Amino acid sequence: MDVAELSYPSASAIEFHKDRLYVIGDDAPYLLILSKDYQPIDSVFFRPEVNGRIPKQEKHDIESAMIIQQKGKPVLYGVGSASSEKRRNWLMYDLQNGTIRDTSLLKSGFRFPTVDALNIEGSTAYQDVFLLANRANLSNPENHLMIVKGSQQFDVKRIVLPKTKSLEGISGLAYSQENDLLLLTLSEEETTSTTSDGKIGESYLAYIHKFSTKLKQQHMTPDVILQLSHFSPAFKLQKIESVCIEAETRQEMTLHLVADNDDGKSKLFKIRLTL
To answer: If I label 92, which of 61, 64, 98, 169 is the partner at 20 to 30 A Cα–Cα?
Structure first.
């Protein structure tokens, strides 16, 4: 396992494309581009007027990212949490020409009928749809997966986790087409709000086998849930926010995890997952 600490605030989203990692912080004014061994390559500013961290009341709260093919070219979306109207904004970064701009899939006032309070913290692409994960908290203790085909075409599934003393909320998603497997990161945080931070507990990596065969179910349960601190003490008190896939076979995956511990810095972890 490789670990690196970044002088980059609040890393909450990570994606991998052509030997580069793309990291976005929920209150950072720029997209950070790294080599796969965590060396800085570039910074792409979308709020160049901000020096340091974007104030909480102004930030887009980008909590996840996904890469899709759009008109034949790869595009990275940074997805806002939608926990307030300001946070419905997304970032759209063209991986070919390097341009970045604001956009959004969710219209003002839009709600998913079975989700009480939006706090989108995971996103990934599956075939021609978006998968968005809504994070549970102590006031709204259910995690949901929203399957979005368009602004008015969607389905919502509950993600059912084993009952434990602490509540785990989904913090990230990644889909493997090669293995038809949905990866999830989960973390414990003592908060009753979609916008406030709380005491950090354990973090987990989970996955759902044969994801495509389970889309008609009313709810989904991960087949495997791994408490990360059981495998390395480096994960103790790390709030894992997102996961991405660097490489994979049918037996093993190389993954990158990112942690935001609410202290203005971020950590990255490179791990191998045996399937």
So the answer is: 169
